[in-house]
Amino acid sequence: MSDYITVYKKWEKYFSNRGLEVNLQNSYLEYIQRLLSKNLPLIFETEHLSLLLERNETYLNSVVHGAESHYREFKLRKRKGGFRKISMPYPALLECQKWIYKNILSKVEISYYAHGFAKKKSIVTNAKIHINQEHLLKIDLKNFFPSIKKGRVIAMFCKLGYSTEVSFYLASICCENDCLPQGAPTSPSISNIISKSLDNRMFALCKHYDIKYTRYADDLAFSGDKIPVRFIDYVNQIVTTESFEINKSKTQLHRKKGKRIITGVAVNGEIVKAPKSYKRKLFQTLHYIEKFGLNSHRTKLKIRNPNYLESLIGQLNYVLSIEPNNIKAKNYLSLLVEIDKARTHNNVYKT
Fold it and tell me: What's the whole-model pTM score?
């Protein structure tokens, strides 16, 4: 608080010494106070923004008026079929987005019910909320990032306290084709900030029915002793009025106890584990690698992915993030780490 007051008084003295008109001085000081009270950086106009981002105004204008040329696009295959379009910002724009995330977005409070892209939250904390519940309702939001339009992002920055012009530039830096791109480091945080209203309304509805609620990005989960069918209609009304859309083909209502999968985590009673089928397939692959060697395994299955070893290590870390005491996963991870070390050593020796 003392830093906030010190900075405020410096600007007050600066404007007074410059001889600014009282009305203009008060307008500036009100703007400064609004941002400092939220621990947000002061950005007075677009020229000031370009200095903070260490980019010239010509570059910023090219992003604002033609963001598409600052991204490279590719497709990733979805596990259940189809493709997801990824828009990756080029390095210059990526640095700008990282600055916005670090200095602005990371300081904004998000909903307690958001577990995706949230500090000290994960797929595990998301699933644990729903352990030992009779009914479970899973709902997926359709085209989550693309459904958040640039106008809503501008409004978000304005609500944080920035001027309309600065908010327009900040939103333009974070958007592509007038919506949030899948692949920008700012998109997850912005989606959580904008979805806070959705989360709060869902909680109010769930409190009335004594139902638990969490959201992990576009995955909504509800659980309790009983979830009536009409409850889904109320959820749909809230989703629609918040400018989102339910992917009805993915809506699932479980009314019998047993194993359920919530954001990739298997929930059975009070126990959370990595899905059994996932572990079985992974451990079988690792068994063959341990028995025949990585190169022999890759040759036999004609695996050409240059990052295959890294992907297996990632899968094991995923299992261990859910089951930290899984001895089998730990042993296989040690095996892969040794293989990776040997490979690195050989490559260094060859060069």
Answer: 0.90
